[in-house]
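Regression test attached.
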Amino acid sequence: MEPLYVINFKAYPQGIGKRAIELAKTLDEVAGETGEKIIIAVQPTDIARIVDKVEIPVFAQHVDPITPGPHTGSIPMEAIIEAGASGTLLNHSEKRLRVCDVAGVVRRAREMGIKTIVCAGDEYEAGAISRLKPDYVAIEPPELIGGNVSVSRAKPEVISRGLRAVSPVPLLVGAGVKTCEDVKKAIELGASGVLVASGIVKAENPRNAMLKLIGRM
Amino acid sequence: MEPLYVINFKAYPQGIGKRAIELAKTLDEVAGETGEKIIIAVQPTDIARIVDKVEIPVFAQHVDPITPGPHTGSIPMEAIIEAGASGTLLNHSEKRLRVCDVAGVVRRAREMGIKTIVCAGDEYEAGAISRLKPDYVAIEPPELIGGNVSVSRAKPEVISRGLRAVSPVPLLVGAGVKTCEDVKKAIELGASGVLVASGIVKAENPRNAMLKLIGRM
Amino acid sequence: MEPLYVINFKAYPQGIGKRAIELAKTLDEVAGETGEKIIIAVQPTDIARIVDKVEIPVFAQHVDPITPGPHTGSIPMEAIIEAGASGTLLNHSEKRLRVCDVAGVVRRAREMGIKTIVCAGDEYEAGAISRLKPDYVAIEPPELIGGNVSVSRAKPEVISRGLRAVSPVPLLVGAGVKTCEDVKKAIELGASGVLVASGIVKAENPRNAMLKLIGRM
Amino acid sequence: MEPLYVINFKAYPQGIGKRAIELAKTLDEVAGETGEKIIIAVQPTDIARIVDKVEIPVFAQHVDPITPGPHTGSIPMEAIIEAGASGTLLNHSEKRLRVCDVAGVVRRAREMGIKTIVCAGDEYEAGAISRLKPDYVAIEPPELIGGNVSVSRAKPEVISRGLRAVSPVPLLVGAGVKTCEDVKKAIELGASGVLVASGIVKAENPRNAMLKLIGRM
């Protein structure tokens, strides 16, 4: 099965504003040249400016559990959709949400026709979230996020247990994923794709880093 | 003194996406025709698309207390600046912040050269915030927000006490402000301007509502 | 099956301090006289003083997702256990928690031998929570909490759907429960018990209110 | 001037339940023998059980910004007062609060006759808080909390600047305070006392640690 690559720009300096637009275009070219499935998750301020320059799906990194109305400083799903987002990450370890809010946002996303990738730190959290039927559950052991050891190598059991916990919702895995071996291992164990951030966004040469990740370099 | 009009688009359906762009252009025209000082505070997803279409300053409604780095789902000041914002609202009653976060964001805004309008619910909160030296403190009695009775009429003492509490930081007032009498009264009492949301954003004819607010219609 | 009655003292004036101790003793007497299963959930400040005066189980209303250590102002499970609590409510609509925190606290409670009753607002949230295997899931439609119409009468489908969603975890229901008919209906539909707050705590005569609730008066 | 010693039990294992009661009695004996002013800040579950065994003032570590009513899992000021607390810490770096909540709780504490010690991380935050007129402002540079280098030695300028920022509200300082030289230095610089946690609570012999801190051993 073809893996899905979700590239999370976070709030890295390399993933904001003009640099985010350049990075998005680079990843879009790689997707075009190789036929790989790449999704990017960007700052809300950058969604509209990136969407009109790339073919790959552009996701938000979060959306607030509100409907349009008097909510200063909160972002409703309508705002990211109007900006052109086709989905959103949710509940990342850097932005954990309440059960009721994950439930509400996932349901609303389904009604409004956008995708959700909901993060979890372990198979227990992942199992609970899978009951809400997001499009993907992504397990990222928090202690490996941002590091150099990948989840596939350090904690393969997280993937196999995670699969059982979230089935039939497809599973993504993340944290420390940097090489195409990391990806292969994850896919072999049953994952549908990977979540990557620093490995691509902070790379000196993101094009090469992405090509290496997908095994074309 | 010329009053400052801060129009907060909130997350109103009329203040998101295409409708936000139209509304921004309308208010920009009014500012151009009348010479009045108008600032708009919009969704982060809309900043960049509005900034290149208007002359009036575009503010964010909030910015997260983080610096660029691994913070999925949080918006650093750099992101709104890159999108073209020249300032931000902070601590609105719909998004109250911790003391340490108001302190940190106001200081950072000063260093990075953007403006801050920090909201407060009463003169005590306003007084504390004024010590952090934002560009403006805005007092909005929460019980009047979104209603039809203006702070100038219902609670003129909030303005006079607020002035003493925040001096020498200039004071804005808000909540229920809809007519040019509301504005005049506030300015007479010493305020430097007003915060308005539903009165303009939800008006059937925002152009007329804005013209009325500034006393040209 | 014998229903379980969980009486939530909340932060009602009648449920704090000396009045909480009196109320606890009253409910304990009713439990002793009637043989009914009653649990009370009280302020953390009152746990120790109530535990040594009653036979019925005393629960906390919440416990923070921390382990003992440098956490000023947060209450670890060890603190409520030392005070004599035998369980805790969690995720009440007035104190919703993040998925990761419900997961962590429920797991820890199991390891440390205390019970958890985890609240949910609907069958979706309840289903997700049931995967974490708390001792009970309690569904309370937020719009009915504190009102005079019971969930059993106004929304019987919440109970039947809730049962399917949480099975095999036993289900409690709450919100507006005030009469023994409300309880009977809930039990008939398959619930294992009820959550009650204002109906008992704010009653002029809590003893009579409790006797009525269990159908002995 | 006689320094005030505020001993924060946090959620340390040594500061919970039976061990908290023993620690409180030990510190109370030291206060009785030496005439020093010692305050302890304990878990809410322990307030009532400690209050009836000691003479020294017992504080809460936090109180929620609510008034009595339907607030499951939140602790109103009435609950800690009923339990016997004579004051509360607020806004500790491990439990930072919103501006509006510090303002509300400090005002309420004054009305209800209990004391507040409000923490701050630097002189800016401290200055803002001082405007709310708590009984004390306590500055603790977060990076020194729990460490072995005291604020008086590492950052004496925090104390002098803090004093100017909070005047006329008296200033406490904390973070890394372990020796009587640390205390002396702080008092010389103008502080009214110190906040100490691990230095006493985690000491092998808290009695000796306290005696050393006050310079009697």
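Expected vs. actual: identical. Chain C has a mean pLDDT of 95.
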